Each structure stands twice: as structure tokens, then as C-alpha cells.
């Protein structure tokens, strides 16, 4: 995908995928629990979500199993974890309420749509192609497109660049604190979806403009006002 020059008035919505487009983080957490249990290790589910959601699988594996691990080994371990996740979540695959209406509305207004996710290509395919959503997006930025996961801003800055929109004209949709922090570092406002954590978990962020249970109550006019 070639980068575009930004247009001063171009607006974009950038969606996190896991936990935002789909309500699947409990299945990610369960797959990590299974993955670590196989290695005789117990993890605390809440703490694990808070400190890892939005980071790339390879970063999570290195920080829990050793920074010294070779790339091939990390890739194999991550493949194992993501295969467990997809098997667990497949019967439940579904977009969060109101998502398809919101993006249809945005498209009709010429607002660019992007995905900014820590997920690897196999999970992007599983979710976006599984729900036939990819065609709606101008671009999808995933784990293999940027060096660092959230809370680094890379994924959102790359998505904005590909959409040709300035960060100040982008609105990010997120469910995880590390994702909200990534958007803050990118200079972007955020709508939080409370699929996984309650609204109180986001109290410290000054870039959050709305906190909602799903997309059905959102209006683009209000968000960009
Ligand atoms: O950036 P997103 O779409 O929320 O993706 C986050 C998730 O990406 C997955 O690939 C990881 O295995 C998860 O543990 C992680 O939390």
C-alpha cells in the first residue's frame, strides 16, 4: 500500500480489531491461559489483559518467556497460541452491535475507514474475511506492518498515513488501556467500547471523547463536532 499525502480536511475512523470490532478478548485471554498452562504456568486473567491487550503476540511471548528467544521459535509459539484462540472463538464470531451501520454511515459521508490491530495476518483474515468486512476498509494495519505494538503509536500513525488523514482528524475506537495510550501518543481522540473493561478503567485518559457499550448509540455528527 502506498502512503498518501494528507489532505487537510480528510477524516478517518480507525478501529482496533480484537475487543472492538468483535467482542473476543475473553477468548484471547483463555487461549493465553491454555498456552501457559501447557507449560506449567498460571497467569492472572485480569492483570494479563491489562498489561498485554494491544501488544503483538511476539512481544507478549518474549516478555513472558524470555527476550533471548529466536524469531522462529517465537513465531511457532505465537502460531500455537493463535490457533487455540481461533478454535475457541470461531463458533462465536460476530461484529459488535451497531458496527456495520456506523461504518455504512461513515462511508456514505466520505470518511476513510481503517483497522489498526496487533493481530497477525491469520487472525485478521479469520475475523475480517470471516465477517466479510475487509471490503469496507481503505486499509488494514496489523502486526506485520509495524515494528511495535500498542502502547506505541505506530499502528495508528501508519493507518492515518495510509488514509491520508492528519492525526487530529482521526478517531480511534478501542477497548484496551494500552490501545487508548497508543492513540494518545499518536495525537488521536478515542471512543472506548466497554466490551472488556468498565468505564472507570479509562478515567485517567484525556483523549477519550466517549465511552459506550457498543456502536449503536454513536452519531458521526457528534463525534466530529
Ligand atoms: O490490537 P488488537 O486488535 O486489540 O489485538 C490484540 C490482541 O492481539 C492478539 O494477536 C494477541 O494474541 C492478543 O493477546 C492481543 O491482546
Which fold name fills CATH's third level, the topology of the largest domain? Rossmann fold
Number of strands: 6
* CATH homologous superfamily placement of the largest domain: HAD superfamily/HAD-like
Mean pLDDT: 95
Shape: globular
Sheet-strand content, in percent, reads: 5-15%
SSE sequence, one letter per element: EHHHHHEHEHEHEEH
Looking at how many chains there are and whether they match, the oligomeric state comes to single chain
Poorly predicted runs are none
CATH architecture of the largest domain: 3-Layer(aba) Sandwich
How far do the termini sit from each other?
30 Å
Compile the SSE list and pairings.
Elements: E1 12-15, H1 25-37, H2 45-52, H3 57-65, H4 71-89, H5 99-108, E2 112-116, H6 121-129, E3 139-141, H7 154-163, E4 170-174, H8 177-186, E5 189-193, E6 208-212, H9 220-223
Parallel strand pairs: 1-2, 1-4, 2-3, 4-5, 5-6
Helix pairs in contact: 1-4, 3-4
Residues 16-19, 28, 52-54, 57, 60, 117-120, 123, 176 line the site of 6-O-phosphono-beta-D-glucopyranose.
Amino acid at each position: 500500500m502506498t502512503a498518501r499525502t494528507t489532505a487537510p480536511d480528510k477524516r478517518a475512523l480507525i478501529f482496533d480489531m480484537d475487543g472492538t470490532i468483535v467482542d473476543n478478548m475473553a477468548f484471547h485471554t483463555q487461549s493465553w491461559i491454555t498456552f501457559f498452562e501447557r507449560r506449567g504456568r498460571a497467569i492472572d486473567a485480569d492483570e494479563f489483559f491489562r498489561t498485554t491487550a494491544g501488544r503483538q503476540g511476539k512481544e507478549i511471548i518474549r516478555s513472558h518467556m524470555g527476550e533471548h528467544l529466536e524469531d522462529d521459535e517465537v513465531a511457532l509459539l505465537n502460531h500455537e497460541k493463535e490457533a487455540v484462540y481461533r478454535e475457541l472463538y470461531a463458533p462465536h464470531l460476530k461484529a459488535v452491535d451497531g458496527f456495520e451501520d456506523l461504518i455504512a454511515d461513515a462511508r456514505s459521508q466520505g470518511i476513510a475507514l481503517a483497522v489498526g490491530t496487533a493481530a497477525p495476518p491469520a487472525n485478521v483474515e479469520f475475523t475480517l474475511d470471516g465477517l466479510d468486512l475487509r471490503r469496507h476498509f481503505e486499509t488494514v494495519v496489523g502486526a506485520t506492518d509495524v515494528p511495535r505494538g500498542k502502547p506505541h503509536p505506530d499502528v495508528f500513525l501508519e493507518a492515518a498515513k495510509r488514509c491520508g488523514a492528519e492525526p487530529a482528524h482521526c478517531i480511534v475506537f478501542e477497548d484496551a488501556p494500552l490501545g487508548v495510550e497508543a492513540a494518545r501518543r499518536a495525537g488521536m481522540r478515542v471512543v472506548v467500547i466497554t466490551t472488556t473493561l468498565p468505564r472507570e478503567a479509562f478515567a485517567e485518559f484525556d483523549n477519550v471523547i466517549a465511552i459506550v457499550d457498543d456502536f449503536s448509540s454513536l452519531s458521526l455528527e457528534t463525534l466530529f463536532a
